[in-house]
Design brief:
The chain is of the alpha/beta class. It is built from seven helices and ten strands. It has a six-stranded mixed β-sheet, sandwiched between helices. Strand 1 and strand 2 form a beta hairpin.
């Protein structure tokens, strides 16, 4: 299997007043293409800090992060932004959808920054993404006309519209009822089976049931890795 992510002894420190907070204390692991990975831990375990690094939103204090053999830590912010846009799709617990805007318009948004994509191409790709998550009949529905589960599926469609290699999700089922959670996790599982690399940060053990690999964190360290 192709190795997509290689994390080598990642440390991340934050200065809070006179105190240094060691959010990550030497984390190492690899993730392969098409794997469904959950990173689990309680609040303060370092999982959100790790997510930001994996998503190229932040850089480690020390250690190496290789994404498709590209060293991320030494890249500039603009370089990371380009890498992020090309390779990574984000899904958040709070959906981050524009209110009073249709599903299609929300999904089109990431393509607005790509001048090479025409308006008609944006719409075609947005519709395809929404159909892929089972919302082909909700294209013109606005955020306030949809359930939480439907809004999260719009958010997944938006993450897919650039055809990224990797989907990174932060507590994507945290606001959902049990049926909506199951529907959303099935979508993530299908994406992994189709070759996308899926990484979900969560404290919910039910999410781990769907994963190929479970990485458990505590106090900024990996304490257990379970491969199924």
């Amino acid at each position: 299997m192709k190795k997509v992510i290689e994390i080598q002894n990642i440390k991340r420190n934050f200065q809070v007043g006179d105190e240094t907070v060691h959010a990550l204390r030497g984390v190492s692991f690899n993730i392969n293409e098409g794997e469904f990975v959950t990173i689990m831990g309680t609040s303060g375990s370092g999982k959100s800090t790790l997510l930001n690094i994996l998503g190229c939103l932040d850089t480690p204090t020390s250690g190496e992060y290789l994404l498709d053999d590209i060293p991320v830590r030494t890249m500039s912010k603009p370089q990371r932004a380009v890498l992020r846009n090309r390779k990574i799709g984000f899904v958040f617990q709070s959906y981050n959808l524009l209110p009073k805007t249709t599903a299609v318009e929300n999904v089109e948004l990431p393509l607005m920054y790509n001048s090479a994509v025409s308006a008609s191409e944006r719409r075609r790709r947005a519709i395809e993404s929404l159909q892929a998550v089972g919302l082909g009949d909700r294209l013109e529905h606005k955020s306030n006309q949809m359930s939480g589960g439907q809004m999260q599926r719009v958010a997944i469609a938006r993450a897919l519209v650039n055809n990224p290699e990797m989907i990174v999700a932060d507590e994507p089922t945290g606001s959902l009822d049990s049926q909506s959670q199951e529907n959303v996790l099935e979508i993530f599982k299908e994406l992994a089976e189709a070759g996308k690399t899926v990484i979900i940060v969560t404290h919910n053990p039910e999410v781990a049931d769907y994963a190929d690999v479970v990485i458990k964190m505590k106090d900024g360290e990996v304490v257990e890795t379970i491969e199924k």
